[in-house]
Amino acid sequence: MSHESDTPRDLAPSTLRLAGIQIRDPFVLTVAETGTYYLFGSTDKDIWRGPAEGFDCYRSADLEQWVGPIPAFRPPAGFWSDRNYWAPEVHAYDGRFFMFATFTAEGVRRGTQILVSDAPSGPYVPWGDGPVTPREWECLDGTLHVDEAGDPWIVFCHEWAQVWDGEIVAQRLSPDLSRAIGEPLVLFRASEAPWVERLRHPRVPEDVAAYVTDGPFLHRLASGGLIMLWSSFGGSGYAMGIARSASGRVQGPWVQEDAPIWARDGGHGMIARTLDGGLLLTLHQPNETPLERAVLLELEETAETVRPSPRVA
């Protein structure tokens, strides 16, 4: 893989700590060859109503001090989406870096588009013909999973706003990640998790039970087991739970843990590998714009799941 110098193209970088970076849906890419971490996330100042500018990233050698913002994606002329740029993830795959991110536009259903770059910080450009999630569905938060046979999948959310009981769905991707192949497979619904509570929202009729699915991320345990982080709303607000595949395959069936791994007004996380081989849980907290910040926690792994390290206060 080729790596560039990460020289910003339209912003002057500075050195920051996480407390100084407004970001949602944090995702850490670890590039061991250069000893560098890259932090991506939803970085527009108001991702709900404000103008969509793109995605920035930050780089670090120690997870403490971060250099940025570095423009990772700016929409090219004629790009189909003009709002709600959400939750970018970056995965090293087949010698390049692929960004999975959520976009929407007036009259166009929300979906996950894949972008590509030769360098971890970008610039990323569209890959394939628009979203790879089903065009007639409201979808978000696509993530890459490469199965035990080496075949790529996208795992994503079929949004509560369309189906009320939000779904986690898997679909095969072509080997070059340019398009989806096969039929989407519903893995589970939000209401199956004991810790998830009904969503109270102006768009939800009083006689309808709505449940949220957000931010799936799959992790292969050292034991060979397969788990998935995903987020919803619990008794203390936004939260993140764990599901486990009983078969060890993405097709499941998936079994929900009784309690969330994070229950206190935060979520949409992933599991990163540190340069020394440890595991790191990311999430944003609080779940309120513009106060959201990235939180990084050490993880301990068992044969069946992961838990925050006892060393974490």
UniProtKB/TrEMBL annotation:
It comes from the Bacteria. This is Family 43 glycosylhydrolase. Pathway: Glycan metabolism; L-arabinan degradation. Keywords: Glycosidase, Hydrolase. GO terms for molecular function: hydrolase activity, hydrolyzing O-glycosyl compounds. Pfam families: Glyco_hydro_43. InterPro entries: GH43_arabinanases (IPR050727), Glyco_hydro_43 (IPR006710), Glyco_hydro_beta-prop_sf (IPR023296). SUPFAM superfamilies: Arabinanase/levansucrase/invertase (SSF75005). It comes from Microbacterium ulmi. GO terms for biological process: carbohydrate metabolic process. Belongs to the glycosyl hydrolase 43 family. The keyword Lyase does not apply.
